[in-house]
Amino acid sequence: MAGLRQRRVRRQRALRWIVVTLFAVLTLLPLVAMFEFTTRDGWDTWRVFFDWKALGETYPILWTGMKASFWLVLLSVALTLVLLVPTVVWVRLRLPRLRRVVEFVSLLPLTIPAIVLVVGLAPVYAWVVYFVGGSSVTLFLAYTVLALPFAYRSIDAGLSAIDVRTLSEAARSLGSSWATVMWRVVLPNIRSAVLSAAFLTVALVLGEFTIASLLNRANIQVAINQLGKSSATMSVAVSLAALVLAFVLLFLLSFAGRRRNRERKTS
Amino acid sequence: MTAPTTGTLGAPTTTAVRGGRRHRSRLRDLLGVVPFFVYVVIFLFVPTIVVVVGAFAGDDGRPTLDNISALADDYIVEAFVRSITLSAATAVLGAVLGAVIAYAVVTAGPDSLVRRLVTSACGVLAQFGGVTLAFAFIATIGFSGFVTVFLKDSLGIDIFSGGVWLFELPGLVLVYTYFQVPLMVIVFLPALDGIRPQWREATESLGGSTWYYWRRVAAPLLAPAFLGSTLLLFANAFSAYATAAALVSQGAPIVPLQIRSALTSEVLLGRENLGKAMALGMVLVVALVMWLYGLLQRRTARWLD
User: Fold this and answer.
1) How far is residue A223 from each of residues A39, A60, A212, B141, B210, measured CA to CA in Å?
2) What is the per-residue pLDDT for A70?
3) Nearest-CB residue to A1 (from B32, B103, B204)
4) Name one GO cellular component term (chain A) (predicted).
5) Contact indicator for B281, B71 with CB cutoff of 8 Å
6) Which of helix, strand or coil describes residue B57?
7) Separation between Cα atoms, residue B60 and residue A77, nearest integer Å
8) A191: phi > 0 → left, psi -120 to 50 → alpha, else beta; which?
9) B282 and chain A: CB distance < 8 Å anywhere?
10) Are B51 and B279 contacting, i.e. CB atoms less than 8 angstroms apart?
């Protein structure tokens, strides 16, 4: 038995190294190629890239896109959380019969591709322009729909791990208002779930292209795409920077997520 | 879950007064979900209804089946066939390769550096890809890409001798695989985590070989999760737009790009709502796939949670 096991562990390790090495080579190849592509004619591209003032002046679209994406991230995360967290908690506590409905509605955007949603959103955005103007930042209203399924799953999983009903009853019987229950009892207990919902929304908004491009708004992805038509090296450079930045962010987050999981398990 | 024990909800009411109060507080409770439903109606239901109604309406707003019957036009049927082929091919390719990578990663243990690195890389490629991925491939195997130039200069191989395939369907298969494989790793890892080492030990102590374990224990357990993930990958590729839009600037080989040209160019008179009909077709395909996925998901949850 022991010999069998050892042989298996050895075989697994060999397989792991072969597969992971292949994966690493194939993943890094495009990144290396991007780097080589941007430095083939000297380092000018990167010099401009890191000189933000020059960058904004040479490629105004890039600056506009980055600014819009920054606000879109903030507003989309805020709207997603403000809409979803109280509703999901409230439904669990007071309207359990609506739970399936809210779940169904929240997961519905998974079956409606963004390219389809944008077809139907055009008339809705005609009204949005009428009421609040045509700024690219208004896209956060549409992005929240895209974020709903992922945010819902995360928050629902977080709430399933705690006994919301008992906690809120305890707080209510001690005289706290619903607002206090929400803010000081439930929310601290699902902090990591809310955080991961927020992070998923951030990633989604930063990577969104379909809706922004087809509604003729600008965000960072639209800017990269437009830049590709005039300056291929700069658009490749920005793409490379975005990919690396996203990787570093996700890698750091994998540590945060793990630690919190362990805390929950031991407590 | 459906047994409210406290508050006004579950209290048995016998008198009219209490019944009235209960009614009022039920109404007050419902107020709590109003913002959510108002938002969802405006930004999810209205667009969906616009698509569905528009698919059956002519330019003048009268009901018609012209748009739907136009879906049978050769170029639209071809686009759907290409879209489905592309999605199926990359889903199967991604599922097989992704499952192997996920298994290799699982053997390393849940907190290992290898797992963190691979899942982070997969997260970036699967969720963030889009336009950036298209540019990555232009820099890698585009006309003056790194690999193209290398192969031409040092080995004398011209990868584009048979045509510019990167900007056509074969190129899309390659680029889509780059976000399908990572997505498979992400969605399949939890299923592999659910496999208990004890099951393998039990098989071995009963005299089963490795092959026997995979064939009779692991494979039947993982099959629903594997099939479900493959369906998810199909839906993912079928709905994808950004990568193709950035890569293919001429022509519209797949449905999302057909919708783009229907939206951006108004060349065809009397076809204003054709884009909506194609969008409806896409929804039907994705809904069917996601429904099957839901069925399989329920089967998976029975074993691997």
Assistant:
1) 21, 9, 10, 22, 52
2) 92
3) B204
4) plasma membrane
5) yes
6) strand
7) 40
8) alpha
9) yes
10) yes
**Residue A238 · residue B123 · CB < 8 Å:** no
- pLDDT for B7: 42
Four-residue CA torsion sign, A47, A53, A54, A57: positive
B260 close to A (CB below 8 A): yes
Q: Which amino acid is at A20?
A: V
Instruction: Select the more confidently predicted residue: A121 or B4.
Output: A121
pLDDT at A100 over 60: yes
Which of A36, A41, A112 to mutate to probe the B interface, most B CBs <10 Å?
A: A112
Q: Is A69 exposed, middle or buried (CB count within 10 Å of its CB: 0-12, 13-18, 19+)? A: buried
CATH class of B73-304: mainly alpha
For domain A60-230, which CATH number applies: 3.30.450.20, 3.30.420.270, 3.30.530.20, 1.10.3720.10? 1.10.3720.10
Residues paired with residue A55 on neighbouring β-strands, in sequence order: none
Cβ <8 Å between A113 and B121: no
- pLDDT for res B11: 44
Residue B29's pLDDT is: 83
What pLDDT does residue A263 have?
A: 47
Provide the 3-class DSSP secondary structure of residue B234.
Answer: helix
CB pair distance less than 8 Å for A119 and B130 = no
User: Is-above-0.90 flag for pTM?
Assistant: no
Where do the domains of chain B lie? Answer: 15-55, 73-304
For B280-290, the pLDDT digits (tens) are 999 999 999 98
Torsion of the alpha carbons at A91, A93, A95 and A98, rounded to the nearest 10: 40
Distance CA A209, CA A69 (A): 11
* Tens digit of each residue's pLDDT (9 = 90 or more) over B130-145: 899 998 998 998 888 8
Sequence-separated contacts (24+) of B291-296 with Cβ below 8 Å: B292/B231, B293/B228, B293/B231, B293/B232, B293/B235, B296/B224, B296/B225, B296/B227, B296/B228, B296/B231
Q: CA of A137 to nearest chain B CA: how many angstroms apart?
A: 15
Q: A146-150, A259-263, B52-56 — which is least confidently predicted?
A: A259-263
Q: Taking a C-beta distance cutoff of 8 angstroms, is the pair A198, A81 a contact? A: yes
Q: In the numeric block, which tokens belong to residue B297? A: 């998901």
